Amino acid sequence: MIGITSYGAYIPCYRIKVEEIARVWGDNPEHIKKGLLICEKSVPDLDEDAATIAVEAARNAIRRRDIDPKEIGAVYIGSESHPYAVKPTATIVAEAIGATPDLTAADFEFACKAGTAAIQACMGEVTMGMIKYGMAIGADVSQGAPGDALEYTAAAGGAAYIIGKKNLIAEIEDTFSFTTDTPDFWRREGESYPMHGGRFTGEPAYFKHIMSATKSLMKKVGTKPGDYDYVVFHQPNGKFPLRMAKMLGFVEEQIKPGLVVSKLGNTYSGSSLIGLAAVLDQAKPGSRILMTSFGSGAGSDAFSMTVTDGIEETRGKAPTIAELLKSPKYIDYALYAKHKGKIVV
Amino acid sequence: MAVARLWRHIPARYNLIGTECQICGGLYFPPRTTCPTCRRDGKIIERKFKGTGEVVTYTIIYSASSTFRRQTPYVLAIIRLDEGPQLTGQIVCNPDETKIGMKVRPIFRKLGEDGSSGIIYYGTKFTPLREASK
Amino acid sequence: MRDVAIIGVGCTKFGEMWERSFRDLFVEAGLNALEDAGTRGEDIEALYVGNMSAGKFIDQEHIGALIADYAGLAGSLHIPSTRVEAACASGGLALRDGVMAVASGLHDIVIAAGVEKMTDVETGVTIDALASAADREWEGFMGATFPGLYAMMARLHMHKYGTTREQLATVAVKNHHNATMNPKAQYRKEITIDDVINSPLVADPLRVYDCSPITDGAAAVVLAPAELARKLNDTPIYVRASAQASDTITLHDRRDITTLDATVYAAKRAYEMAGISPKDVDVAEVHDCFTIAEICAIEDLGFVQKGDGGPATEEGITALDGEIPINPSGGLKACGHPVGATGIKQAIEIAEQLRGDVRERQVNGAEIGLTHNVGGTGGTAVVHILSVNKR
After folding, report:
1. Do B76 and C140 touch (CB under 8 A)?
2. For residues A17 and A39, what is the distance between their CA atoms, to the nearest angstrom?
């Protein structure tokens, strides 16, 4: 048996509303809100980056289960906004949670699915008995070029998962990945902002990969959409995951609990993992959860899991996603630009 | 700044690891190699502090050195840790809500950076302790 | 130990001295002091110079030799020249080193001086250099500025003792008033309480007019043993006490954040050495790098009870015509604060007050004066007691 021993999340307290971004670029906010099903997105503080977000999420994961950090044998961090091009974020996090020095650590990058790839790596090492616990984190302070459609969604946040065989709160029955070389979204070395293929990011990228991974996983596990209480997909906006759910035969009740994008935005590597955290915050023992991430470039990792009795012991020990989303501080575009380092002097 | 000077302080800056004198029980942050009370008779060991504490006094910095200029105004405080030692650190909060006696908890933040191409310094700042933040 | 006297004083104008270099400033002060003492370079046996941060301000170390060279004391006379440093107390320390050299009998006539050239770098660098007087690793690194640390003292003083915003402002108003009568002062204009409390915030609750300025300047005194002093000078001023004390470098480690124990201990040692008590002091130059610093100083020096500094200032006891006139020169606040020179300038002001040389700002009948010079937020304090009488 392998699965999730603990989880923790972190979301910066600042938000900017769609209306405020639309005001600057002369867009119609109602069209944006209706098109993307998003109202606002999180913005990091001046002194926050993917590393600080990862540390806060990791500390919340440890706090939730009182894990001895020295028992964590691997720390893997998925992000597309690692603070350094060369120098791992993972060492910063490992040191800050007190897991050093007897462990392995590395940074992952696979657009928005690097965090779930990190979970799979941890699963492998735990299964092999190489490590007792592995920590997988997806964290981003994602970038959208000023005026680009991405600017309405590119948000900041992250979630950390401790993978192990003991003290499980959810058993992972299986995982399945679907990967092709599909350049729907990219950022070249040294560039500040990503580029994307516009509508090409939809059908041949997001929908094809999530659908393929999810279907193959259900076939492998022998489940059908109706067997799951909850389903979580990568959330680049509010619309895509809803449509994906419908295409795969899931109903709104299954996807709504984990759909947090409208008040949060797209936290990239954190996106599906924060969605899963929102589900775990409310899932009961025995609940079945299906989660499929998507990373541009492109690939999807699908996971089938069942919540265990252990989940009840972890309630109230670390902030829930609902608590993290509570009492946001709204800022205007000028402050947002300052926070995001968009003002270059 | 040369990196060695920053690297040396990582345990103390990230996790508030200070020292304790086993002879007199004195607690020190930042770490000291000699107990200021027992001096040569002291016996110093590592001691991790929880990071929760209260504001002894504070200021709001409006005029900062080049490193911190972009962050003004920011709250700087002397904090008495629950275990006793006092330290100087920033409080991430609305300046208006800061009060003497306010309870705080530690958070992990960027403290500064050596320009856009140099090393980034991480460490502990503080934020008001609220129910939801536990 | 021999009795020591100040036999000559020299000081540049304080301010933004754009045309003058570090060397020019020092040479002017030194030559003025020698002329005032009626001595010549050949008579000088040693030079002690207080300087905080020439390394950061003008990218120059090895100040002792540089200054001896440009003062004409190195190339042919080869006198020993030593730089001493204790942040803003460097000048006070240089005076103390000079006094000790003469008192011990090692040297007869020496120069004690201080110099700082602060305007050759941009303001951000100056702020940062001054912050190095605090603990760089555990205060400065966290974003502490020098005004910020004193602001935290002010906040707690206000919280504990009810010291008011207006009382702090009164310090600045008084010192500006005194400076109007000092031709060497950086700011020779009156200000009002409203000017202070409406000036821009630097580190809340301290505002621009609560802070001493960035200043260029130099000051020098000539010291001699008492028996020689009377032969060289009609009005030698005797150094009755020279005391120094240390405390933790960080403000947060202090026994009490609103008390500078270094001041308390230096003062106690000085009073003992001089055989006097605080009430015997007729005039004092204290370290008012910020308005709160003067409030703390008059408490810690024993002129008023702890916590009474604010009301006492408001009542005018520290004014020029008050019970204990404080900072007749205008203090660091209005006369200016070229950090390394300040401790020497304080001694010059008191020496001139005791000689009766300062006209409009003269404290009548002053016979005993005190100087109080602080390094950092109180990691070092130096107190000197000067007198017209040897005993």
Report:
1. no
2. 6
Q: Is B15 on the interface with A (CB under 8 A)?
A: yes
With CA atoms as reference, the chain A residue closest to B69 would be: A46
Kindly tell me whether chain A and chain C come into contact, counting contact as 3+ Cβ pairs under 8 Å.
no
* Residue ranges with strand state E in B1-134: 17-21, 27-28, 44-48, 53-61, 74-81, 86-91, 103-113, 120-128
DSSP E strands: which ranges in chain A? 3-10, 14-17, 40-43, 72-78, 104-108, 133-141, 156-164, 170-182, 185-186, 195-196, 230-233, 288-292, 297-307, 329-330
Residue C170, pLDDT > 60, answer yes
Q: What pairs with residue A131 in β-bridges?
A: none
- A8: helix, strand or coil: strand
The DSSP symbol for A222 reads: T
DSSP-assigned letter for residue A307: E
Pick the CATH number of C4-122+214-237 from 3.40.30.120, 3.40.47.10, 3.40.50.300, 3.40.50.720: 3.40.47.10
**Residues on chain C bordering chain B, Cβ-to-Cβ distance under 8 angstroms:** 124-125, 127-128, 131, 137-145, 147-149, 151-153, 155-156, 159, 200-206, 250-253, 257
Domains annotated for chain A, with CATH where assigned, are 3-169+316-339 (3.40.47.10), 172-312 (3.40.47.10)
* From-to residues of CATH 3.40.47.10 in chain C: 4-122+214-237, 143-210+240-387
Nearest residue of A to residue B118, measured between CA atoms: A84
Which chain B residue has the Cα nearest residue A98?
B15
Which domains are delineated in chain B? 51-133 (2.40.50.840)
DSSP structure class, residue C182? -
CATH code for the domain defined by C143-210+240-387: 3.40.47.10
Q: Does the active-site annotation cover A112?
A: yes
Q: Which band of pLDDT confidence, cut at 50, 70 and 90, is reported for residue B66? A: confident
* pLDDT tens digit sequence for A129-147: 999 999 999 999 999 999 9
d(CA C342, CA C346): 6
Helix (H) or strand (E) holding C217: strand C217-225
Q: Evaluate whether chains B and A are touching (3 or more beta carbon pairs less than 8 Å apart).
A: yes
CA A172 to chain centre: 17
* Contacting subunits of C (3+ beta carbon pairs below 8 A): B
**CB-based contact, B60 to chain A, within 8 Å:** no
**Residues in chain C closer than 8 A to B76 (CB atoms):** 142-144, 148, 152, 203
CB contact under 8 A, A45 and B109: yes
Rounded to an integer, the average pLDDT of C105-117 is: 98
Contact: C253, B100; criterion CB under 8 Å: no
Phi (first) and psi of residue C90, to 5 degrees? -60, -40
Q: B123: which residues sit within 8 A by CB, 6+ positions away?
A: B13, B14, B108, B109, B111
**B44 forms bridges with which residues in the sheet?**
B21
Q: pTM for the whole thing?
A: 0.95
Cis peptide leading into residue B30 (ω within 30°): yes
Interface contact B78-C144, CB threshold 8 A:
no
Average pLDDT, chain C: 97
Q: What is the dihedral of CA A211, A216, A217, A223, to 10 degrees?
A: 100
* Direct distance between the N- and C-terminal alpha carbons of chain C, in angstroms, rounded to an integer: 14
